[in-house]
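Cross-posted from the bioinformatics board.
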Amino acid sequence: MNNYKKNLLKKRYNAERRFQWYGKIAIGLALTFLAVFMFQIFSKGYSAFQKTWIVTEVHYDKELLLIDAESPSKDDLENADYYDVAYKAMTSLDPGLPEEEDRQLIQMVSYKYETEVKDLLLKNPDFLGKIVPIKLTASDDVDQVHKGNYPRDIPEKNRRVNDYQLQIYDMLNERGDILSEFNISFFTNPDSREAELAGIASSFMGTVFSILVCLAFSFPIAVLAAIYLEEFAPKNKFTDFIEVNINNLAAVPSIVFGLLGLGILLAVFNLPRSTPLVGGITLSLMTLPTIIIAARASLKAVPPSIREAALAMGASNMQTTMHHTVPLSMPGTLSGTIIGLAQALGETAPLILIGMVAFVNTIPGTPVDPAASLPVQIYIWSESAERGFVEKVSACIMVLLAFLILMNLAAQIVRHKFEKKWS
Amino acid sequence: MSKIIAENVNVYYGSKQALFDVSIDIAEKEVTALIGPSGCGKSTFLRCLNRMNDVIDICRVEGSIKMDDLELNSRKLDVVRLRENVGMVFQKPNPFPKSIYENVAYGPTIHGIAQSKEEMDQIVETSLKKAALWNEVKDRLDEIGTGLSGGQQQRLCIARAISVSPEVILMDEPCSALDPIATAQIEELIDDLKKEVTIVIVTHSMSQAARVSQKTGFFHLGKLIEFGSTEKIFKNPDKQQTQDYITGRFG
């Protein structure tokens, strides 16, 4: 082999090696970005899954509860006055405190502490007249102090937790009366103005309903459109025109669909605003072209020999399509659908326009109840100034990501099942 | 006796003419081989016989093709009925990606041939036996048809084609993707089948045409150059072109 050839060969190998390195660097960069992003979210968000409780003692005093009956019924307990009992439970933490300063203690627990006192007795009616320990939800400020997110060294007047409250907190903490437990209420509570009570139940359900509505509207329409266009429609200028328009539709910014939802679904059809029904239909406008394109591509990918085989057996066009082509294209169509839904899942702008950004403190039971959605919830919380919401934003992102991963996993499983059957 | 009589068949793909005035008589329960170089129109002609050219938008067929006095090249013809009577086996084995059983049962199912499960089982068994595949697959009818070897797949396609008891079977280079052993099996099969069915086979292999067919037609550039008994075509053709092709001087 002469020198020229040797050099050429060396160059070719070097070019390949260089190219492989470019690829490795690109993947490395992508993974680094992902890792930074994930670290950012997890390090900020993990503490939202912990909830801080303050343990104190409550005396269910019949007199203070204003219960007269000898053996009170459930109704009597329900209608009793818990204000004083709950108040005393908190002030008993520091009996020496002058009465006009009591608010400082009350502020250390959530404003729903009276309800918590009531619920405990309703659950255990035999506590009546007894002194029992009780767990009360700590206020978000105490919660943040306990999680170490709140700097203690800034001047008192700039702090939401004053020196006296810190002192009480330290005392309770030393006694072991500050508890940290898994934050169930983050998943079961609707949104709230108070960070310690705010949860994702309403936005989660809103997202679930929106996605279901979106699927119910977009999937059948898109699949039928794709089948007709691909298998039955004559190939002419008009169908080309339709195809161009569908492709354009897929690239339209989502906020435009939001305006469409606002202008048509809400203004013309008078559908209930802020609901997953409207949100889902609006999102399905976005998902529709994505599914049509994916379904057409996977129909196109079915080998023509299968169509010929069926036609040659005397199957009609319809039978060929329904018995062979469509089932074979289903895995591709389904994964396209999932991609479309995943896009819709993270969509915020159109939902804001149709009013799903409203503050909703109830959990929706049906698609026509007002609800938020997870990405909108992230948007709402990220605008809140309170420190307690910072970790909630990250936690909500984590839930959204988990939702996405679950969906993709489901898609993979469904896909796998179909493919097993067909190949 | 003639099964199919084609007269002056012209086929156009758009403005390009693919067949020129082809007239041919295909005899019943015989094997007719169509030979010729690539692109000579033999497959196009074959696809006229079960109207598979309908799938191609730009394809236009002129002339008359009669099967038992039924005009095939007519708008009024019910192609679904026609294809029930005229089966087809393709160049590349194309079983459905379904079980072996479902592959064979598909035709009888859509045409409502079997009334009961037992009847269907019987049809599947007979078809697979006729296709000389039964012994190899009888214990694994639930397995997927595309998992078989190439030769088995092609025999499965033949079983699928004969499951609806067609009068004619068209074969478009059925052995071109197969090894010599599988080819021999298919050729044996063709020999058996011709007792009941009329077979038209397009082939690139002249030795195959010589082995399996009784009549042979030689196509060149869209024209039927010569048609006659296989013996005559191969031993003593009338036309010089045929002679040249047979002896391998062109094509």
